[in-house]
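for the writeup, i need someone to sanity check this before i put it in the appendix. the sequnce is what the collaborator sent (i think, or maybe the updated version? ugh). structure was predicted straight from it, no edits. if anything looks off just tell me and ill rerun, i have time this weekend
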Amino acid sequence: MKLTTWQIATLIGAASYLICILAQTLPPGLPIQIVPTDFYNRIELIGFVSGVVGVYLVIKESPYNYPVGLIWAIAYAYYFFTVAKQYGDFFVMLVTAGYLVDGWIKWRSKSLPSGEGFREGNLSSLPITHIQPKNWIIVGLTPLIFIPLLAAILQAVKGQFVWIDAATTTFGLLAQYLTNRKIFQSWHFWIITNLIYIPLFFYRQYYPTAILYIIFLIMAFIGMAQWRASMNQSNPS
């Protein structure tokens, strides 16, 4: 029997729940709590599960990745602000929440206005596409401009790890912007973002969140393969 997308999503959610619960016992010696009693652990658990399920739904090109992702963004906005003190990442989660609403509208309507989102032409369906060559200049300049600018702002508000925070903020927002427009290269920027996050969270001993971003990294490579296959089916040579 072939499972539906939502049945698989439910199984992934259950597995994510167990992984997060186990990760919250790190460093070794902490008790396993099936239902965490600590408020911050509960927030982390909600963000963990909704994050993994949301990325799975992105891979499957389901527009419902957006409301699920909105739960992830809100949970981690609170976590980054109150626990990690990573104010850039707090900001990126707030902006991502707005992007998720925008993306949900675009994916549900399956259309984009003329000239928007690195695509040209009249109102049309929203397939997976590549960044047009002329727009690589914009994409390339964005990190060069915004990372130093954000680092200076974060330094002024006494944030933690300001350059790393600025980099994840810039690449994360760029990745979400491209995802909303179903641009294949969005996965490349998610991979960059995840590769920066993983060592940071391990260094800060935020083990469940570090493991979450390892899962995100693996799923980004899976997403690239799935979207490439989808494009090949839509445009057979």
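Confidence is low (pLDDT under 50) at residues 111-124. The chain has eight helices and no strands.
thx in advance!!
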